[in-house]
Amino acid sequence: MTVSSPAPAAATAPDAAVGRGRLRLVAHQIRYEQLSFWRNPQAVIFTFLLPVLVVTVFGAVFGGDQKSDFYFGLSGMQYYTPTIAAVSVLGACYGQLAIVLSTRRQTGMLKRLRATPLPAWIYFTGLLAHCLLVGAIDIGLVIGVGTLYGVPLPAHWAGLALALVLGAASFCALGAGVASLVRSAESAPALVQFIQFPLVFISGSYFPVHADALNTIAGLLPVKPFNEALLAAFTGASGHGWRGLGVLAAWGVLGAVVAVRRFRWDPRPE
Description:
Helix content is 73%, strand content 1%. By secondary structure, the chain is an all-alpha fold. Belongs to the ABC-2 integral membrane protein family. Its main location: membrane.
């Protein structure tokens, strides 16, 4: 007697239902993170107003379309618009995430969350998507202000989107890695800024760096490759901004490894 096998559609139906359920959980977690963020006026103002103020001040000081060798053949605002956009993404995806995770751990929120059925990967996927959305809004605001000072729109929108996704993922991984090393929420901002400020300055975010040795060192760190990727997307340069994205991705992998190995859900004992 021949025994017929079950229909493939019937076998895969439970898997499809599980997949849809996971997608709903991810969407719910993204919505939760967005609501938590937008209901905190201080976080919203600092996240979105600071980059706009910086690029506005730079526009008033360096406005005009006169190109200069000091800015590698660009005008001042053509250089600063993508680099300030990069700083805003760094702050949203690295700095804020490290501080938020440290605070939530110390207040016991992560411990309570870990006791729920919510998988850890869904929680962190929601955080990543939230940071990506915030970074995209930041870049849009900076681009809008830049156009008021005569900066052309990005030449490669696909390149800009790819750089944003890779940069957000890498910086979020680094933020989670740093949060796993922080002992208390009070020390998180100091440690975050201690790492972020030197990286921003040696990477040419606030002024071009023409020292070859310093550029070589900064090229091995995560911020300069991200700056170059956004500069390439804005100016239409081919190849120059993308060579360092492997470095950026490698730092993201390193941050993820540290986070996986060292991340704590429970508050550290006093």
